[in-house]
Design a protein that fits this description.
63% helix, alpha+beta, 14% strand, two-stranded antiparallel sheet, 71 residues
Length: 71
């Protein structure tokens, strides 16, 4: 969602000296999800962790996972 789309969809208000845009919660959650996804895909350490996890061959059963997590 672009800044222009936010302005069209949301309501612009001024709080103090800074303007703010009020958007529906559904749209805000969508923005947050996209930002999180962007941060994950641009993080070098995250890419290394994914690569390492994909190369591991050890598999866990659901019982083992529950036991490790304390359920």
């Amino acid at each position: 969602m672009t800044a222009q789309q936010l302005l069209e969809k949301g309501k612009t208000q001024k709080i103090g000296k800074e303007p703010v845009v009020v958007v529906p919660l559904k749209d805000w959650r969508n923005i947050e999800a996209r930002l999180e996804e962007f941060e994950m895909t641009t993080s070098p350490s995250f890419k290394k962790k994914i690569s390492k996890a994909r190369s591991e061959t050890k598999l866990y059963s659901s019982k083992d996972v529950k036991k490790l997590l304390g359920f």
